Amino acid sequence: MSSIEKPKLRELNAFPVNADGRQMICLQDPLHFTENPVFVPENAFFIITLFDGENTVLDIQEQFMRKYGSLLMSDQIRKVIDDLDSNLMLESDRFEEYKKQVTEDFARSSLRLAIHSGKAFESDPELLKYQFASYFAQPEGPGQPDPESLSHIKGIVSPHIDFERGGFCYAWAYKEIIEKSDADLFVIFGTSHAPSKNHFILTNKDFQTPLGIASTDKNFISSILEKYKVNLFEDELIHKIEHSIEFQVVFLQYILGERDYQIIPILCSSFHKIIEENKLPSEVSAFSDFISAVRETISQSGRSVCFIAGADLTHVGKRFGDQIDLSSTLLRVIEMRDTEMLAYVEKLDADGFYTSIQKDGDDRKICGLPPIYTMLKVMDASNGKLLKYYQAHEYDTDSVVSFASLSFE
Question: Is the pTM of this model over 0.90?
Answer without folding.
Answer: yes
